[in-house]
């Protein structure tokens, strides 16, 4: 496998370290989230405290990348800094996210039963709590992009041959993180977003755009959902 310009060519030992880092990045989130789920506290507190898990995982990966892998956490930060490109990319990616939302709803439109219980519970708890919605959206935008695109995707690209397989695997892992909602529509949406964002990051190497779009997706959808509940 030809090494990417500007990056080291991994030995077998390096590849093992990278693979362990990918497993750590995903499993640490799952284990800690499950731990929060079974704490004897209400859902509002679970939503609040669970956000710190993602910030903690980013800090853990920063340490792992710098001290164990001996390389930066973000390997692909060489994207365009043009303001016009930034604005257009945010707009286009958000439109793509809307298309992903429509596609993810197709099973429901064709009569498949969708379990909305968990999502509706979360929306009900968040109603009237704009500060928590902002905090959750900001956390998701920054930490999930850093973890799944900035860390996992870049390492998979170094370990696997081919351009598309790393994107697909990182999207599957990103979708699996949303399993707790017990919603097929949410899983499909997360997978499609993972593919779209992963493809964009491979081509343009600009994670800041992904962070902004991810934040907007969560912030707007949660605000709209809770506003409709108020009505």
From TrEMBL:
Q: Which domain of life is it from?
A: Bacteria
Residue ranges of the TM segments: 17-36, 48-65, 85-111, 131-152, 164-181, 187-202
Keyword DNA-binding applies: no
The reply to whether Protease figures as a keyword in the UniProt entry is: yes
Q: Where is the CAAX prenyl protease 2/Lysostaphin resistance protein A-like domain?
A: 132-219
Provide one Gene Ontology biological process annotation.
Answer: CAAX-box protein maturation
Q: Which InterPro entries match?
A: Rce1/LyrA-like_dom
Q: Which UniProt keywords apply?
A: Hydrolase, Membrane, Metalloprotease, Protease, Transmembrane, Transmembrane helix
Q: Name one GO molecular function term.
A: endopeptidase activity
Q: What's a Pfam family this protein contains?
A: Rce1-like
The name of this protein is CPBP family intramembrane metalloprotease
């Amino acid at each position: 496998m030809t090494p990417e310009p500007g990056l080291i060519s991994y030995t077998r030992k390096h590849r093992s370290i990278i693979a362990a880092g990918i497993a750590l990045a995903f499993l640490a989130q799952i284990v800690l989230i499950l731990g929060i789920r079974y704490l004897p506290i209400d859902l509002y507190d679970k939503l609040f405290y669970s956000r710190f898990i993602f910030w903690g995982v980013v800090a853990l990966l920063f340490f792992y990348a710098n001290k164990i892998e001996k390389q930066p956490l973000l390997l692909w930060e060489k994207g365009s800094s043009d303001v016009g490109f930034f604005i257009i990319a945010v707009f286009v990616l958000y439109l793509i996210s809307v298309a992903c939302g429509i596609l993810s709803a197709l099973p429901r439109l064709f009569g498949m039963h969708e379990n909305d219980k968990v999502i509706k519970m979360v929306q009900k708890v968040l109603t009237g709590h704009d500060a928590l919605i902002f905090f959750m959206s900001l956390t998701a935008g920054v930490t999930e992009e850093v973890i799944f695109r900035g860390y996992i995707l870049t390492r998979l690209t170094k370990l696997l041959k081919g351009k598309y397989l790393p994107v697909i695997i990182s999207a599957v892992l990103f979708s699996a993180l949303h399993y707790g909602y017990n919603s097929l529509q949410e899983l499909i949406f997360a997978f499609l977003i993972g593919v779209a964002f992963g493809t964009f990051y491979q081509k343009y190497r600009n994670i800041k755009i992904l962070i902004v779009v991810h934040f907007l997706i969560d912030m707007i959808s949660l605000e709209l959902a809770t506003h409709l509940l108020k009505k």
